[in-house]
Amino acid sequence: MNDLLELAIEAHGGMDRWNKIKSINAELSIGGAIWYVKGNPDVLQEITISADTRQEKVVMKFPRQDKLTVFQPGLIAVKENGAKDFQYFSDPKSIFAGHKLDTPWKNEHIAYFSGEALWTYLTIPFLYTEPGFQTEEIEPWEENGEIWRRLKVIFPENVVSHCREQLSYFGSDGLLRRHDYTVDILGGATGANYAYDYRQTCGLMIPRLRKVYAFEGEAMERKTITDPLLVSITFHSINCEE
Hints:
There is one protein chain. It is built from four helices and 14 strands. The protein has one domain: outer membrane lipoprotein receptor (LolB), chain A (Clam), CATH 2.50.20. Strands 1, 2, 3, 4, 5, 6, 7, 8, 9, 10, 11, 12, 13 and 14 form a 14-stranded antiparallel β-sheet that branches. Strand 7 and strand 8 form a beta hairpin. By secondary structure, the protein is mainly beta.
């Protein structure tokens, strides 16, 4: 483990604390321009999730819509409108085949995109210590009057995320400030994901607000495009299960 990752791990609560936590549970609302483009502007308002920390799994409940979804890398399950049984999608990435940017999303698309995104966000930086991850500190970055150290991360094939190569930016305190990626299932659309409003929860430092914008340019010349706001994530409450 390189020293930047070590700094980030300690700043976010430490491995000893992380290893005691089985799941992160939250009430949250997700909005932003992408949901209008996909024909579901309010679908992720006032939802609850449970993100498993031991395996890549997110259970999402939609209290206002009588709906439940389960995300796993190789399986999406959807149950709604009082149904007794789930509808299953065993090759979930294939459901995006032929999609264009403005192709509307159904329940299964929302479950897949939201599940893999939230699981990644909630497990960083601890996720980067798992087998198969490759990490390398690259040139620092100046933004908002601060110098942020940057970690280039290559995800292993067995972990589903937006893309294989991602960048995490950490402040001098070791907390994540920004997380850059492209989104494979959106045709390589860019995302600069900013983390705000850190609070200690369950012995971990977790941001309660995230804002995602597009960016353009290569690693040393990236420019954030602040209009429109693509995705906003507001956590109303967070708790953990040990």
